[in-house]
Amino acid sequence: MTTLPPILMTRPKLIDLARQKLPCSSRLIPSAQLIKEKEDIDHYVEVNFKGLSKEEVAAYRNSYKKNICVDMLREGYHESFTELFALMEQWETLRVAARRRSIFWTQKPLEDQLDKLDYLYHHLTRAEAAERKGHFEEVYNNLYALACFFDNAEDKWVRNHFYERCFQIAQLIKFDGGRKEAEAHAHMGLLYEEDGQLLEAAEHYEAFHQLTQGRIWKDETERFLNMWACESLLRTYRLLSDKMLENKEYKQAIKILIKASEIAKEANNKKMEGEALYYLGLAHLAAEEQNIAMTVLKAYSKISTDLQDDLSLGRAYEAIAKVLQSQGQMTEAIQYLKKVVNITKSNFQNIDVVKASTMLGDIYNEKGRYNKASEYFQQAFDTTVELMNLPLLDETKVHYGIAKAHQMMLTMNNYIESADLTSLNHLLAWKEQRGDGDLEQVLPQLPDEDCESLKPQF
Question: Which residues does UniProt assign to the signal peptide (predicted)?
Answer without folding.
Answer: none
